[in-house]
Please model this.
Amino acid sequence: MSRHVVAKAGDIARGTSKIVKVKGREIGIYNLGGEFFALSNRCPHQGGPLCLGRIGGLVLSDGPGEYRVVRPGDFVKCPWHGWEFDIRTGQSWCDPKSTKVRAFQVAVTPGEELVKGPYVAESFPVQVEDEYLVIEM
Amino acid sequence: MNAPAREARVAKKLAIVDCDIHPAFRSPSDLFPFLSERWRQHVATFGEHIRQGIIGQLPHPRMVAYGMRVDALPEDGAPAGSDLGLMQRQHLDTNGVEVGMLISLGRGGMEERNPDFAQALSHAVNEWQLESWVKKEPRLRAGIVVPQEDPEFAVSEIERRADDPRFVQVIMSPRANEPIGHRRYWPIYAAAEQAGKPIGLHTAGYSGGHASTGIGWPNFYIEEHFANATSLQGVMTSLVFEGVFERFPKLKIALIEGGFAWVPAHCWRMDKHWERMREEVPHVKRKPSEYVREHFWYTTQPIEEPEKPEHLTEVIEWIGWDRLMFSTDYPHWDFDDPRFAFKIALSEEQKNKVFRENAKTVYGIK
Model:
């Protein structure tokens, strides 16, 4: 396990995401209302590029003609077969018991701490005055 | 091992035959080199009249990206499936496709009402498959797209390409003007049988102007997608009970993208009714399931995914491991990945049949 600095916190605006590469694996980093989450860019169903999928809420219904959207922005929908995953946990919505996409912890860390090392900066210089996203894997 | 080398090794090991790849036009003018000035002018002036009420639109809004894999959209904004380079990199190379069958939907005459234009489109789309795809990428194989409502022309187009191994099948619409077991279509079956090429029936399109389901137009895309299976059940029933296989004992039918798990139950029902009502159709001399076992093959995508995967094994045992042909449906959204589509463990022999040999046998690929 090593810790990887993957992006500047300010690079990923609220409600958006960014795909980064860590140890050759693609990881999608999501900013949900200022909190950061990371998912493997590989759908556990058939291996589709999950993190290219649309971000949205769950559309639920209490009966025909009645619709409501819950937790807007908290789910990503795989662009191949449409499986929905909770960005916060990686849990599948349609098959929560047995399907989960790999999720990673994202820490927001001040650059001041990072410059002391030992961290792996992926592709950009770390500056003392900024905040960075760090993944351990 | 680094990632590209690992991918290359996996791809080589797969060495699959993909029985459903959709090439797309960048624009209608892609066919212009293969159309006469008379029809180029027609397209420019009138456009095409496909057989559904909505021109240039799908009957139901589909998933994101117009029903395509999001990652299959070329960067320059062209339609998914229109860029051979991307298809090679993303699919043929990565997934180890040794042979890929082009299934050209949309423009191609199957859905065109103007009969003369349908002829021109059929010929043009067949030339286009050769010039723009197969000549540039020999792993790909073309299908002879014919306007099924014009059997005389269809026969001439089949005969023109009968000895060309780059064309492996005859493609017509499963939703024709009439149920496709009807005798007006028999000349097409005679020509296909003579040429030794299967009839490929890809569930799509609205050639006959019929609703997508047998009970009318549904409200939701999910219902239309489900009708892929039920429409091909209608096709199977029609071909069997009209006596097509009594007349054409060597005819091969490939049902493309209609699922297969329904086949056992459908055959049980046909057999049961045949035992009681065979007097109505005395030309159907054998049990319907016997014709089905001899004449039909099924592509696998979108594969059924039962809760207990072993149920799929039971279904395939009934249908026969020699009847399934792997397909991906690239670049459509419901693409099946050869590595992950089957949630059951296949033996090496079963894998070899489903991913390679069945298709090679059916399509006569050396």
